[in-house]
Design brief:
CATH topology: Arc Repressor Mutant, subunit A
Strand order of the largest sheet: 1-3-2
Structural class: mainly alpha
Number of domains: 1
Radius of gyration: 13 Å
Largest sheet: 3 strands, antiparallel
Number of strands: 3
Number of helices: 7
Distance between the termini: 23 Å
CATH architecture: Orthogonal Bundle
Helix content: 40-55%
Order of helices and strands: HHEHHEEHHH
């Protein structure tokens, strides 16, 4: 997968853990979401608390009936979090920690991926 190649050199362990914790559909959604990461903030471009399920389903090509459950699982695992109504991708999956604001990193310090100590 394209996104895995982009981040695998730095975060192969965290992506491998994510793969064991998710279904193929949840994992694929996380991978697709990674394309929308803004490098400077780790925010997910165009995704926030007000984005409709219809828009999310259309954006990712996933059924409107199932997209909510997929996002719920990714929130539960700490792959994504809401910060100031913006959705943020877990920097332990998407970066090596050098370019992400400390405040964003701290949002994810309680996740499995942070505990792996990959940075």
């Amino acid at each position: 997968m394209e996104i895995i190649k982009r981040y695998a050199r730095r975060n192969a362990k965290t992506w491998s853990l994510l793969e064991t914790q998710t279904t193929i559909f949840e994992y694929a959604l996380a991978n697709k979401m990674a394309k929308y990461i803004r490098d400077e903030t780790n925010n997910l471009d165009g995704l926030n608390d007000k984005t409709s399920m219809i828009k999310k389903a259309d954006l990712f090509g996933i059924s409107r009936k199932t997209i909510g459950k997929l996002f719920d699982k990714l929130f539960e695992l700490g792959v994504i979090r809401s910060h100031n109504s913006e959705w943020v991708f877990n920097p332990y999956l998407s970066t090596d920690g050098n370019k992400v604001d400390k405040e964003i990193v701290e949002l994810f310090n309680d996740t499995f991926y942070a505990k792996m100590g990959t940075w």
